[in-house]
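User: I'm writing a short report section on ligand binding and want a predicted complex to refer to. Could you take this sequence and adenosine-5'-diphosphate and write out the structure as tokens? A short remark afterwards would be nice.
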Amino acid sequence: MLTIKTSSTFGLAQMREKLPKDAYQALLQTLEKGKKLPRETAEAVASAIKEWAVAKNVTHFCHWFQPMTGLTAEKHDAFISIQHSYHSELRVIERFTGSQLIQGEPDASSFPSGGMRSTFEARGYTAWDPSSPLFIIEEESGNTLCIPTVFFGYHGQALDNKTPLLRSLESLSQEGCEFLKLLGDVDVKRIQATLGAEQEYFLIDKNLAALRPDIIMTGRTLLGASSTRGQQLEDHYFGSIPSRVKKFMQEVEFELYKLGVPVKTRHNEVAPSQFELAPIFEDVNISADHNLLTMEVLKRIALKHGMVCLLHEKPFAGINGSGKHNNWSIANDKGENLLEPGTTPHQNLRFLAVLAATLKAVYKHADVLRASIASPGNDHRLGANEAPPAIISVFLGSMLEQILNNIETGKVNKATQQQIIDLGVGQIPTISKDYTDRNRTSPFAFTGNKFEFRAVGSSTNVAVPMSILNAAVASSFKECTARLQELLKKKGSSRDEAVIELVREICKETKSIRFEGNGYSQEWRDEAKKRGLPILNTTPDALRVLTNKKATQFLVDTNVLSPEEIESRYHINVERYVKTLDIEFMTLAELIKGYVIPSVEKQLIQSHSAYEAIKSAALKKSWKVRLDELEKTFSDILKNLEVFEKHLKKSHGLEIEEDKMQLIVTQIVASAEKLRSVCDHAETLVADEFWNLPKYREMLFSNTLTS
Ligand code: ADP
Ligand code: MG
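Assistant: Sure. The structure tokens for the complex follow:
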């Protein structure tokens, strides 16, 4: 295990070192058994933290939480309160109590609650999540101690994305342990989901980005003709990293190490100016916090290096977008990876059982999993021929397919040691990444010892899809436990045979979710339709799943979300979809009126006077062809803009958010696309000196010009 020296975090290791023994034990109990932290312990912990933080020149602390906006929020308080004494000398009092550590009360009214607040109370509370290390953010304005917290309402309803994640882990552990015990792992006490979230991003020169109102307002380009070179040479992926970017990456890694985020690999991605950063996996709740921190650090350090980091899923048309592959697995309390084929038949049987349970989870809840990654940005990736399709399917690789097929066709019944070995299960350890054929078109792929949920968007808070995945698997474990119990009751069958039988049944039931072919192809879309898999191409389609009580019942059953929490999340997501697209639409109209039209006008005036000045009839004739094209394009822009603005006005007149969402997805998106395409054509007809927006070629390739 790699140990990284981190200087700016306070986690379990530091607690053990700094806390009195009994306080540390009480804290461990809290973590292991989910018990409430006793007040005295909280005081002891607060005091240890304070001492550590003050030594690190911390002046403020904040409760760091994850409201449903998908980002993070901070509620700051002075760590050291400065009081005037009688003699008007300044006296510094260090004040940081156990209750300040454990609970805060930010005003919840400025965070989305999806209607839950009107039925409950306006107050919101934050509470420390002791399983996630505290960290210090160092900035020129001062150092701030950040306390990772959950955020909930007066009646305990979750107002954030961390609470459901913690609940899902609880449920996963409970149901998983039951299942594992039945498989023969009698002493298992806890299991944990693990996550390594590979983060893709773009880096654009800050001075160029500042000249693009669309990037400033929406994080992506709403206009822009393709540059002559895009990614067709495929020369960017694993190519050499421009030195300016390398310096940026070094600083990002340094900052992240200090914050305890274990980043490991870095390389260029497929598109020009696109890069990726991969962390070493951790427990999913910590990893989710760390990914949020990573996104913040990327943005902050980029600015320092004169660049803007774009985390949007589709900053540029015509070249690849950005995703965040969620490498997910489950580990037991011995640290064994349950999706790692082992060295003994028992371990491999367990592996197959957990694999089957995961298959069943994805099969049963593909629609909600799809909904968990739905966002306007991700709509540009999923379904386009560059990223996993919007149809959720599972890729296992040829060797596992073979094994499952053998089990299914009954080539193995007895599950004796020899049979398991004959089946190939005894040799599963040879499935490494070199053996799994890497199917990049699969949204959910097995990669040797973990699943990679690839359809997650680059700007997503991974706590959301991870909560849903954990809940789905927890619920599947529960089903598997019940079924295995039934199978075990059957006379004369050994445990191993019963497990094989369960795996066989599940293989048959979930066959339709397995797909090894090209996920981008039209054939797959047709085939998926035949198989009855959910095809949810857009965010509105996907979000509607959340209104289907039957589809979301497993979230209620696993205590991950209550029915009203689900409803509130649906409303928040609908509203965010509408608002995000509305901002894009208004920005597009503004860009066209403020930049495109004036540029084309200038070109028209110049071209006209040039035309008038031409004497030669032959030249006039060919010049006229150009002029006609320019005029036609100008008129296309005006006509399309008129239609577009009419739609927009109509949508602004609608009262119900769902109606707006419907109008947007059925009409306005297409109308905006059409408008864009004529503007992009205009860009190719107008002189550079009249075109005031930085072009794709500058934005995408300027980094390669740095020494
Ligand atoms: P590859 O490069 O073939 O995709 P890596 O071993 O580099 O595979 O892993 C890719 C990502 O998957 C990394 O972020 C890594 O930490 C993560 N990962 C590896 N093992 C696990 C696991 N058991 N659980 C969760 N994530 C994992
Ligand atoms: Mg990857």
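A remark for your report: Confidence is low (pLDDT under 50) at residues 1-5, 81-93, 424-436. Residues 162-191+337-561 form one domain.
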